[in-house]
Amino acid sequence: MDTQMWVITHKNYPGISDDLYRTLHVGRALSQDLGYTGDDTGDNISLKNRNYCELTGLYWLWKNNQCDIIGVCHYRRFFLEKGRMLTKEYIEKTLNDYDIIVPTCGMVKEENVRKQYAANHYEEDFDICRDVISEKYPEYVEAFDIMAESKLLNFCNMIITRKNIFDDYCKWLFDVLFEVEKRVDISDRDNYQKRIFGFLSERLIKVWLIKNEYKVKEQNVKMMDSDELDKKSSLNNAIRNVYQKITAGILKKYLSPTSLPEKINQSVCSDGRIPVWTYWWDGEEQSPEAVKKCIKSIRDNIDSNKYKLHVITLADCQQYVTFSNIIIDKVNSGKMPLNILAHRLSMELLYRYGGVWISPECFVADERVNDFIDSGEFVSLKHEGICDKSFLKGPAGFPLFGFVMESIDTYFSFKDDLLSQDMTDEFINIACEHMDYVRNDVDKCPDNNKNCEFFKENADRVYREEIWDDVVKDTWLYKLQSDRQYKQKNIIDKDTFYGKIICR
């Protein structure tokens, strides 16, 4: 399959070693040739670059390039998966399940997108754009108004999709923008505000996605120097190779369900309830405030008729699990961090007994957790298609749990140092890549709790009901940080999101 990622640039940059990535010099008709493929050949709008920005590149790719799958990123902004640049394999696999990949939604600070645009640009341009859509594409007006009243946008004008979908999008987008261009006078504006069509297109892609009801995969985007990303990707690949070697022998045992050891189905709930597991090594009473709030939220919201909460401590953990002498020695010597020991604990608890694991840094907002637990034999916190170890449910003997447990043990039997904090995630990814029956179970669980990182950036901000109402619609699980001191009130005694939601 001919899959191409195009890096849009207007200046020299280090480049990317992966052949998947190609460079397109936008606005070349207005500047000195940089030696890259330029957007000034064939059917092009290169001369409009100062007003259309990266869109002159999109136009050129639409009119002059043929491939099966096409993607657009920027010389400073790249799509990332687990900290690595996207590969050809990842893109093609993702587009088997989704229609389009776009940047993860960002939340505007203002009341909605319309007011955000008015605060930063010329509000009349926004209205003219709606007028054009109303006249030329009236079936898109409802979607435009939904976008205008929303607080979320997919910024950056970056997209990955099949070429036929890309062409359809460009045909619609440029038809709208060329008409808007006829109706606005930007001659007296500064250079920044003359980039009107790039600004509008960041809003219009949301309109197009809403109207056409495409299945959209939101992907993390990070602003980084490409050389830095290249080096980071190389390092990550080297680390991943170590994990692959460590787990090669273990995989052989788990590649076929028939070769698996018998399920260990020991009951820890004599009354028939399903165990829900969490921990704090020093005990719940000695935990930080945020952890106390999280554990309480789990206890308050799980159905106590169906589930029984177990809070495991360092003192009592070996009543439930068995750590080898090697693991104990590595922990005592500081070579195995306690957070990795917690991951190891979660995997053995689930492998031995089944049930639900919820990290003590996860706040459960309401009783929707019960419907989620009941929705499948295996479920997990999941976003961007990735299984998250913070929340896992599965039966005793589920191969994923056994594989990760054995992989952690094997790693520390050979290694004295931790190569990365993502080790457990990597073992989960390896299992999903190589064990089809595990991958199938993981795939059955839909993406969920898209705003689970909300408190990372917003915990200490002033509470606003309309924002929270929007966030909580499809999210009931939120990650907190045990070592962070959160504010309940701001400097003028207004409730923060943490104070209003977590401490209520």
Chain-wise SSE layout:
Blueprint: E1 3-9, E2 21-25, E3 37-38, H1 49-52, H2 55-64, E4 69-74, E5 77-81, E6 84-85, H3 88-97, E7 100-103, E8 106-107, H4 113-120, H5 123-136, H6 141-149, E9 152-153, E10 159-162, H7 163-183, H8 196-212, E11 216-219, E12 221-223, H9 226-254, E13 274-279, H10 289-301, E14 307-312, H11 325-332, H12 338-353, E15 355-358, E16 362-364, H13 368-374, E17 379-383, E18 386-394, H14 399-414, H15 423-434, H16 436-444, H17 454-458, H18 465-471, E19 477-479, H19 497-502
Parallel strand pairs: 1-2, 1-4, 2-3, 7-11, 13-14, 13-15
Antiparallel strand pairs: 4-10, 5-6, 5-12, 7-10, 8-9, 15-18, 16-19, 17-18
Helix pairs in contact: 2-7, 5-7, 6-8, 7-8, 9-14, 9-15, 12-14, 14-15, 15-16
Strand order of the largest sheet: 3-2-1-4-10-7-11
Number of domains: 3
Query: Termini distance?
Result: 53 Å
Estimate the helix proportion, in percent: 40-55%
Low-pLDDT parts are none
Q: What summary fits the major beta sheet?
A: 7 strands, mixed
- Global mean pLDDT: 90
Structural class: alpha/beta
Instruction: Return Rg in Å.
Output: 25 Å
Give the overall shape, derived from the CA principal axes: globular
Number of helices: 19
Q: What is the correct CATH architecture of the largest domain?
A: Alpha-Beta Complex
What CATH first level of the largest domain would be assigned? Answer: Alpha Beta
Share in β-strands: 15-25%
What's the CATH topology name of the largest domain?
Answer: Spore Coat Polysaccharide Biosynthesis Protein SpsA, Chain A
